[in-house]
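Hi P.,

Sorry for the delay on this. The queue was packed all week, but I finally got your sequence through. Input first:
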Amino acid sequence: MLTFANPAALLALAGLLVPLAIHLWNRRPGRVVPVGALRWLTPGANRRMRQLHLTQWPLLLLRLALLGLLGLAIAGPRWSKPAPPLRPQVLLSPGVLASPAWPLLLPTLDSLRRSGAELRYLGAGFRLLPDSLPQAPAPAVAQQAASEWYWGRAAQAADSFPNRPLRIYTTAEAKHFRGTRPLLPARVRWQTVPAAADSGAWVQAAVRPVPDSLRLVVGYGSNTRTIFRNYRQAWPAQLPHALPLPGLPAMQLVQQGRRYVVQPQQPDSAKPATQANVIVQKPLRVAVYFDARTHTEDARYARAALRAAASAFPAGMQLQVSSTLPSDSLDWLIWLSNSPAPAAVRAQINQGLNLLQTAGRQAQAVATSFSPGAYATAAQLFRRAVATPLGARSQVLWRDAAGQPLLVRQPAGRGAEYRLLTRVHPQWSSLPTDGQLPEVLLNLMTPDAHLGAINDFRQLDAAQVLAHASADTPERNLQPATRYADLQPWVALAAGLLFGLERLFARRRTSTATAA
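Then the structure:
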């Protein structure tokens, strides 16, 4: 079917009247014929000579066709093609393939495939599943299952397959649902399946709140609920020390360098994945130093964010906020001042201090955004410091939308120096006021080894996972997008050919008139 991208441009076809009027107005002068007497010319003959009639009609038709094609080219002609059918997409998380419910899910997936649906992995690239559905996941897919986050993947799938019905099958493990839940379209159906018959028991955290005490947080989980229990005991006088815990294999407390670790007494136990080593944590010692003349507001936002994040640390937090230099041994020091940290403070970095310095006086106004984490919401950036050359071991943790470094980490000894090229102030960025600062500081100050993500077997309720669409969303209302073939270049090419042909005919006409 022929359609036009700009139908209003068809009014240009009214210009066809112009060459027709010019052709009728500019009549060729009549030939002079000598006659003996004018009395033989009757008035009727003069009237016939004044009548309008077409001459040189092939040239006129060429010019009319040329103008018509130019008008059509401006209107943007295009030929609509029949759209391919919208094939539903079924996305399976790697954990589903290894779950006990996989054999029960196979008949449903076979039925969807026979009806035209495509089965894909819910992972990077959304790779197609083979025609013969596997009974167990491939090794690479099984490794990917432990680190995949489903909220981001579901939003990416909705953008990658527009106007297509989407069915998503995942497990309901809480460790895969970090970040902010996206607003998914109504064409997405999400169904969770049980990951395992019983998640069992695991050591979630180990804490040494005071030098003579040890507290163990043990989780007991299944597909219906997860509970945590605290077990306290005195710090043992000798290591390694056996730790009898209900529902767990024999555990022990050992020392590894400067750290204490809770681990199974038999590393080759039957459940290695659920009995990972857990580092014994101490209360996190954090201090905020601020210049009372210039950074009082920054300190207020940093103190509020750290107090909100303190409850998420298993061992708690010892927080100091002062305009005088702290004298105690610290794990983290947040430096809020235009002046750089003194050499006495920087010397403690090699001993394990993590120093976070914000921007100084030299700054420039910008209007961009940045993401303070892989799955965090983008924050607005209003002012930033002038970037300094990066060191050989520098690691860029954050970049703004223009690709410029914003948070740089420079390891040194057992500690590290962090440079934030903005400030914790609403006039510098939206991070202090958009609610993300506690989570950002928590992720920054908590090493990955302390998160215990591999030991997290909590299950989300199905109501928390399901998309906003109702179960009876009519997929038949999803119409495929119409495809169009652009005819404008071909119409323009035809107009060019007609123009050349018109010039040839016009030149021949001129030559004939001159010869006559």
